[in-house]
Write a structure and sequence with these properties.
The complex is a heterodimer of chains A (319) and B (443). Chain A has one domain: MetI-like (MetI-like fold, Orthogonal Bundle), CATH 1.10.3720.10. Chain A is built from 14 helices and 4 strands. Helices cover 47% and strands 13% of the residues of chain B. The N terminus of chain B is likely disordered. Classes of the chains: A mainly alpha (319), B alpha+beta (443).
Chain lengths: 319, 443
């Protein structure tokens, strides 16, 4: 049996036995050692910026501070979280915020992608236009929204009232329900282009012949979407959703700028709770414990994402 | 075409090339280390750089003063450079804590002394202070110095502050048919004025501050004190918002200005110093309780308002006059490696010349006790009034290591829950008392 040599010259072949000998020889041991030397700087770098901070965060979560006095409490900070209504409130807010935002990213991103895919002229310009919110730094975008939503002289109140949509000016960031709705709106404005971009890439790979054949068979637009487009996008939809969940659940900047978690903690998502606990309350141990819990939540979705990236082994089963 | 796989490996050449690569790596590393080391050596010979962080360096009204002050200090001390850490007021504490946790705190800072000292972020100044002659130390009153102490140790040199008063827009007052020369002195009069100064949907008497910063707490404390109430016991170990009847009565009166009488601008839970002064500058509110610096802020926002401003003592519901005075003190952080230079700088920025400039240009009130009679400082009648109010002022922040947290979070959340009608005043503040007392106990 002959196996094609990847990266070799055209027609070049190699026997498996030859390859196996090469991989176990003395020369290879040296190669491997040298390989470790070459990757060592990057491993050290990754250790410094990922593994060490993670380990340090976990270590911090086992301590409780009272001024300069620091004492080891083991899992005490985690146990306290279970009894802390603030933590449960933040977890609930995070779940609602993430679920609604991700759903809306898809609901807005899908039609936007379909629209761009249909366009024959001006597609590039419109694509850039749609991507603009995603390109704007979140803090700057959120600051602009704070002024747009300002209750006394903000543009949103003025427009809505002029159009007869509201009877009196609304305190968009001052009422718990409206505040959560406002930050969700801003996150959707900022986040839908990401989903749109992934889906647009997928749409451009759908064979046009399938649409033509379906049209000839009398399929309408909805049927073409349901039976051709969606099946082709199924894998990308799951990947986009998983990535979007990972992105959204760690949202900090928009909330920090717009509400700081208020009013009465109605918008205090977990990352904002970590910030408030660590830097305002000076309780770094409990803050690190919340951080570890958030990391575990993210790991669940990250694992799912990694599994999804192995289509031969996993995705085939899903299908 | 030659088959690449059949080319015999020239192992000797390969080894040589590996050696060459390794040599190259070692050489590069050595060069890198040399390059990294070079600036260190240069830095050792370079002038001392002191980082300076306060809450107000980014504020326009202070910029001309500190820029001139730093330039003059550097001219007098060519071996010391001052590096201002520019950070917005609302992020000032966070930035400081982050740096302090990384053992990189700026050398000289003005922060909440009790919280920072309790957490070990500051260096005690007693040795430096005691080494100064008595004539120098007498420039600060004992009360002022005590306010910069924690557990008997001095952690800052009181520099500037703000004494609170009631600031009115004379034109709106006149339009409402009220006498600008007879501002309300009692709560009852104030409520009458407030109703007349409010035109629903267009203009309001005041802004209730309930945004997520400690200015919300400042207002609440002033109202409580103006009724002879207390929010805490003298040692700040027990919260008494609900258990002190006078405190509870004051809180109800203050929050009912919004809930019942509707004389406060809508959106109180989003309003802090910035929003309050903006509303006043835009003539959306007729009065604002603020310090002298608030006048500079609104005039900066709307110069046309300058001649419309009048100041009065805040209305009281008790015979004993009281207001609030914030205090900022310059401290040396635990991470400062040039303590002598830092102390020299602190003394310089607190010289009489700069205290007067801070008053006349930036509207920050002095903490030195030798300014009151200064002809330059007493030119401005508004300033003279604020200085007079200083006689009745109680120091803020309160000396408790949890203050930065409870003033900006717990108390604010409680005020918000009442304004958003999630709880009654009594229930909300009883819960606050219980929560704070539990936190105090854990200290």
């Amino acid at each position: 049996m002959q196996i094609a040599q990847a990266g070799g010259w055209p027609g070049e072949t190699i026997r498996p036995t030859q390859r196996r000998q090469g991989w176990t020889g003395q020369g290879l041991k040296r190669e491997r050692r040298l390989g470790y030397v070459f990757v060592a700087p990057m491993l050290l770098f990754l250790f410094g910026i990922i593994f060490f901070p993670l380990a340090h965060a976990f270590w911090t979560s086992l301590y409780r501070e009272a001024g300069v006095n620091i004492r080891f409490v083991g899992p005490g900070n985690y146990a306290r979280l279970l009894d802390d209504p603030t933590f449960w409130n933040s977890l609930r807010v995070s779940v609602v915020f993430t679920a609604v935002c991700v759903a809306l990213h898809l609901i807005v991103g899908m039609p936007a992608a379909l629209f761009l895919d249909q366009l024959r002229r001006g597609r590039t310009a419109l694509r850039l236009l749609f991507l603009t919110p995603w390109m704007v730094t979140p803090v700057i975008g959120a600051t602009a929204w704070v002024w747009l939503l300002e209750p006394h002289f903000g543009v949103v109140n003025y427009l809505f009232r002029s159009l007869g949509l509201i009877a009196a000016y609304k305190i968009w960031l001052g009422e718990p329900g409206l505040a959560l709705g406002s930050i969700i709106t801003v996150d959707v404005w900022r986040g839908f282009p990401f989903v749109m971009l992934i889906l647009l890439a997928g749409l451009q790979t759908v064979p046009r012949e399938e649409y033509e054949a379906a049209s000839i068979d009398g399929a309408g637009a909805l049927q073409r979407f349901l039976y051709i487009t969606l099946p082709h996008l199924r894998y990308l939809l799951v990947v986009a959703t998983t990535l979007d969940v990972i992105n959204t659940v760690r949202t900090f900047d928009i909330v920090a700028v717009m509400t700081r978690g208020g009013p009465i903690n109605a918008t205090e998502v977990l990352p904002v709770l970590i910030f408030n606990t660590a830097f305002q309350a000076n309780r770094f141990g409990p803050a690190a414990a919340v951080g570890v819990v958030l990391l575990l939540l993210l790991l669940v979705f990250s694992t799912l994402y990694i599994l999804l990236l192995q289509p031969e082994r996993t995705w085939a089963r899903v299908r | 075409m030659k088959d690449r796989k059949t080319i015999p490996l020239d192992t000797a050449r390969l080894r040589l090339s590996r050696r060459a690569v390794l040599r190259g790596m070692v050489g590069t590393a050595a060069t890198g280390l040399a390059l990294i080391g070079a600036p260190v050596r240069i830095a050792r010979a370079a002038p001392i750089t002191l980082q300076y962080q306060t809450a107000n360096l980014t504020e326009a009204q202070y910029a001309p003063v500190w820029k001139e002050m730093f330039a003059k200090f550097e001219a007098q001390n060519p071996n010391i450079k001052i590096e201002p850490i520019l950070v917005a007021r609302k992020d000032h504490w966070t930035k400081f804590v982050t740096a302090a946790k990384a053992n990189q705190a700026p050398d000289v800072v003005a922060v909440d002394i009790a919280t920072a000292a309790y957490n070990g972020y500051l260096r005690p100044l007693d040795d430096l202070w005691q080494a100064e002659p008595a004539s120098y130390r007498q420039v600060w009153s004992q009360d002022v110095i005590r306010a910069a102490m924690w557990k008997g140790k001095l952690y800052g040199l009181p520099s500037w502050g703000g004494i609170y008063g009631e600031i009115y827009n004379k034109e709106i007052v006149r339009r409402a048919g009220l006498d600008t020369n007879k501002p309300p002195a009692t709560w009852k009069d104030y409520l009458e004025w407030a109703k007349k100064l409010t035109k629903e949907g267009q203009q309001w008497a005041l802004a209730i501050l309930a945004g997520k910063t400690d200015t919300t707490t400042r207002m609440l404390l002033m109202w409580i004190w103006s009724n002879g109430g207390e929010a805490f016991d003298p040692d700040i170990t027990q919260a008494t918002f609900a258990s002190n009847p006078k405190a509870l009565e004051a809180i109800e009166f203050y929050l009912n200005l919004d809930l019942t009488h509707r004389v406060g601008a809508p959106g109180a839970v989003n309003i802090n110093y910035l929003e309050q002064t903006t509303l006043f500058a835009q003539e959306k509110i007729a009065t604002m309780r603020n310090a002298y610096w608030g006048v500079a802020k609104v005039v900066g926002d709307n110069p046309a308002i300058k001649d419309k401003i009048a100041v009065a003592f805040s209305p009281m519901n008790t015979d004993k006059k009281v207001t609030l005075a914030t205090m900022a003190a310059d401290s040396i952080s635990k991470d400062c490696r040039h303590v002598e230079a830092a102390w020299k700088f602190i003394k310089f920025v607190n010289e009489r010349e700069w205290a007067i400039k801070r008053i006349t240009v930036s509207n920050w009130m002095p903490m030195r006790n030798d300014i009151a009679g200064d002809p330059e400082a007493s030119k401005d009648p508004l300033l003279a009034q604020f200085l007079e109010y200083g006689r009745y002022a109680r120091a803020y922040p309160l000396p408790n290591p949890l203050w930065a947290d409870i003033a900006a979070n717990d108390i604010v959340a409680t005020v918000q829950s009442v304004l958003l009608k999630r709880a009654s005043v009594k229930d909300a503040f009883a819960k606050l008392d219980a929560d704070l007392n539990r936190k105090f106990k854990e200290l």
